[in-house]
TrEMBL record:
Heterodimer composed of a glutamine amidotransferase subunit (A) and a GMP-binding subunit (B). GO terms for cellular component: cytosol. It is an enzyme of class 6 (ligase). It comes from the Archaea. One of its GO terms (molecular function) is GMP synthase activity. This is GMP synthase [glutamine-hydrolyzing] subunit B.
Amino acid sequence: MVETDQFIEDAVAEIREEIGSANAIIALSGGVDSSVAAALAHEAVGDQLVPVYVDTGLMRKGETDEIRETFAYMDRLRIVSAQDRFLEALTGVTDPEEKRHVIGEQFIREFEREAHSSDAEYLVQGTIYPDRIESDGNIKSHHNVGGLPDVVDFEGIVEPVRELYKDEVREVARALGLESVVSERMPFPGPGLAVRIIGEVTEEKVEIAREATAVVEDELEAYEPWQAFAAVLGKATGVKGDNRVHGHVVAVRSVESRDGMTARAQPLDWEVLQRIQSRITGTLPNVSRVLYDVTHKPPATIEYE
Ligand code: XMP
């Protein structure tokens, strides 16, 4: 803990020195990385920091409200409601990389507007060490790395957690007193629920991914997974009541990992899997089938697109 306290002290001093008396902006994603970066930056420069949270409509259940509460102490917090614009931009998009690209572009447009109106000269980012490795290797386009600095002419980019792994970021979050919904929160991809939906993103599929993920997170908490969630794969025939239905197929995924670069599918009890299945098909009338994904990474990735 001494090391963590020292890290915080050094990071705050470094941010203060870099930003000076200028304004800075940060995009909050709801995840622990950007939350810690924001808390450190706020500690360093107070109300010179403008935290911006873009509600893409692709967030987890309750996430926007949690952000509003957690960061209420930051006077300049802005919450942008962009759900309709994201959904519209995603209409007809089925290719995984194009999907990521469309979301990244839309995000930049939303953020750019906020950055211009905030007079921010500095951009604070919650980039952590593994993000840089994966992005350098071009494994997949991460919309939270790169991109943003190019659209607004920032004086500088500040990345206070750039050398940390996820478990170290969590330690810092706890030491900073961030609420456990934030410090213990599972990683969540920048493009949100969209990469847990195969094919076109529609309001219906987003709702299924969101509700089913909430069930999975709730049921699997005791297993302490690195990530656990539900994905929407496609459609298959089922029977509900007396009728055959062409319902959605939901995959449950739960993995152990240290940094997301490799992962192991978790062994789960049959009873828990059955409970998840019954809660999901019971509450979502348009879901007819639930599968459990037993694939490690590699060969699979953690997310689906
Ligand atoms: P994959 O699916 O590549 O995911 O095995 C590895 C880890 O990265 C997260 N992930 C992302 N995080 N922006 C992010 O900030 C992204 O575009 C993105 N794509 C995947 C994923 O949730 C997992 O923790």
